[in-house]
Specification:
The complex is a heterodimer of chains A (194) and B (79). Chain A is mainly alpha-helical and 194 residues long. Chain A has eight helices and no strands. The model of chain A has no long low-confidence stretch (mean pLDDT 89). The chains are: A mainly alpha (194), B mainly alpha (79). At the A-B interface, helix 2, helix 3, helix 5, helix 6 and helix 8 of A face helix 1, helix 3 and helix 4 of B.
Chain lengths: 194, 79
C-alpha cells in the first residue's frame, strides 16, 4: 500500500490502517528516539507520543512528503521536547574541547593523521561504541545539533526551526561539535596501528 | 591564512560553500601546512564516524519493537 492510500484509510478511521502504520514505522522511530534520548524508557514513551501526535495531525500530512519523513520529523520533535523537560546540570563549556592556537594563529598542537580503523584490529562495532560514548560527552546543545544534522540528516533550516535558533547558529554549533568530537576521539584513534 | 582561520572555514569547504575569494588562500594553506592537512583529515573522519555511529551493523533493520509498546500505542489512540 502506498503512502497516499494508507493516509486516506487513516483519515477514515480505519483501525487496520492504524495498526499497519504502527507496525511498519515504530521500529524506525524507536531507533531515532533511542539515539536522541539514550534512555529506553524515554525512547518508548516518546515513540508513543509521536504516534499520538501523528494521529491527531493527519490533516497536516501533505502528499508531497513521504510518510516516513513526516513521521521522522514528528519523532525528532517529540524527542527534543523530552530533552527540554529533563533536569539538566548547567551545561559545561565546549571551549576545552576546541583546538588551541598560538598568538600567531598557528596550531598549538601538531596533528598527525589517524590510521583508518578499517585497517586495524578494531571492529566496526567497537568503533561505533567508542564514537557513541564520545558523542554522549558533548555539551547538550552541541550534541543535539550534531545528532540532528549528522545523524538524523536534517538540513540546516529544518534544524534551526526545530531549535528556534538561526541557521548560522546551527552551522557554528555543528562545527564546534565536530571539532569537540574530534578531540574526544583523538586518544582512541591516534595510536591505532594497522 | 593562519591555522585558526583555516579551521573556521573547514565546514564550508566540506559542504562546498566556501566563498570563491577564500578558496585560493584555503587550498594554499592546506598544501603548505602538514598539521592542518592532518587536522582536516581527522575532521573528515570524525564526521564519517559520527554518521556511522548509530548505523545497524551490515545494514540490518532496527530491532523488533516490543509487542507491549505496539499495543500501548494502539490503545492510546482509542482513548
Amino acid at each position: 500500500m502506498d503512502d497516499a492510500a494508507l493516509v486516506d484509510r487513516l483519515r477514515t478511521g480505519d483501525e487496520a490502517a492504524y495498526e499497519a502504520l504502527v507496525r511498519t514505522y515504530s521500529g524506525r522511530l524507536l531507533a531515532v528516539t533511542r539515539r536522541m534520548l539514550g534512555s529506553e524508557e524515554d525512547a518508548r514513551d516518546v515513540v508513543q507520543e509521536a504516534f499520538i501526535s501523528a494521529f491527531r495531525h493527519l490533516d497536516g500530512f501533505e502528499g508531497g512528503a513521504r510518510l516516513s519523513t513526516w513521521l521522522h520529523r514528528i519523532a525528532v520533535n517529540a524527542a527534543l521536547m523530552k530533552l527540554r523537560t529533563r533536569k539538566r546540570r548547567p551545561e559545561e563549556s565546549i571551549e576545552p574541547l576546541l583546538p588551541v592556537f598560538r598568538d600567531d594563529g598557528h596550531h598549538a598542537e601538531q596533528f598527525q593523521s589517524w590510521n583508518e580503523s578499517a585497517e586495524t584490529a578494531v571492529s566496526r562495532g567497537e568503533t561505533q561504541a567508542i564514537v557513541r560514548r564520545c558523542i554522549e560527552r558533548l555539551p547538550e546543545s552541541y550534541r543535539t545539533v550534531l545528532l540532528l544534522r549528522d545523524i538524523e540528516q536534517l538540513d540546516t533550516e529544518e534544524t534551526a526551526a526545530m531549535l528556534a535558533i538561526t541557521a548560522n547558529a546551527v552551522k557554528i554549533r555543528l562545527h564546534r561539535a565536530r571539532q569537540a568530537l574530534r578531540t574526544l576521539l583523538d586518544p582512541h584513534f591516534r595510536g591505532v596501528r594497522a | 591564512m593562519t591555522c585558526r582561520e583555516f579551521a573556521e572555514f573547514i565546514i564550508d569547504y566540506l559542504s562546498g560553500d566556501l566563498a570563491a575569494d577564500v578558496r585560493g588562500p584555503f587550498e594554499r594553506h592546506l598544501s603548505r601546512c602538514p598539521s592542518c592537512h592532518a587536522y582536516l583529515a581527522q575532521y573528515r573522519s570524525t564526521v564519517a564516524a559520527g554518521k556511522d555511529a548509530f548505523a545497524e551493523p551490515d545494514g540490518a533493520l532496527p530491532a523488533d519493537v516490543p509487542e507491549d509498546l505496539i499495543q500501548a500505542i494502539l490503545a492510546s489512540r482509542r482513548k
